[in-house]
Predict the 3D structure of the following.
Amino acid sequence: MEITINLKTVSTIVAIVAVIIGIIEGLNVFSLSGLVPDFVFYGSLAIIIAILGLLGVYISKMDIRIAAIQYIILGLGLFIAIGYYGVIGCVIFIVAGVLAIAEYVQTKEEVTPDKKLFLIPVLTIVIIVLFLLASAGLGVLDSMAASDSVSFSGLSVAISNDYGVTSGDLTGTLNVDKDFDYLEVKVRFYNSNNLTLYESYAYTGSNVHPGKYSVDAFYYGNEMPTKAVIEVYNEVNGDPIHTQNVNIN
């Protein structure tokens, strides 16, 4: 007895599974975020992308080719939105798209082209791009707000050379005007040729609230530095949100 596999049906089932997995992955990002704005934003985008998979299921009844395009776009969009958190949903969406293409190639299903249906994958791309652009814009604004919320006062450098060894400290006060989950102050000491002589951590704190915090960066080397660059980070391995130069006489 010959068994015929209807790839359209299989593709539809796989797409529905991808929708469910995508929503779960988006919610998982929420659970890991601790309600950090960036994670909430991208988790929301992942859920929206997954739900748009239902449009692919709807389209598949009229044009399997456009449904395949929709599935592949959603798979890639899910990965772009939440990275490796969305790998499973991404792969399943792409599998659904490949199965849909295989169904069309196998059956050469004749359909009456409806150009309006192409608007759905196009609008899907537009939605994903707009969300990503909005995220980039919000990220810039958040970075600017974070930069304006930290400053230094009372900076003082006391470095001397004793018995052929140069050592000392850069001290001061870190002024914080908003809550931060994490703050780190790093100081790099340079010579007159702009070569890094020494790096030191002046402050590290979690759940930092508005207030004043003492900073103290130790220096140790063979020559007197001419400049120190203070960098403030609000995430590990991130980019500095605030930088300040201090000349050393």
User: Anything to note?
Assistant: The longest strand covers residues 150-162.
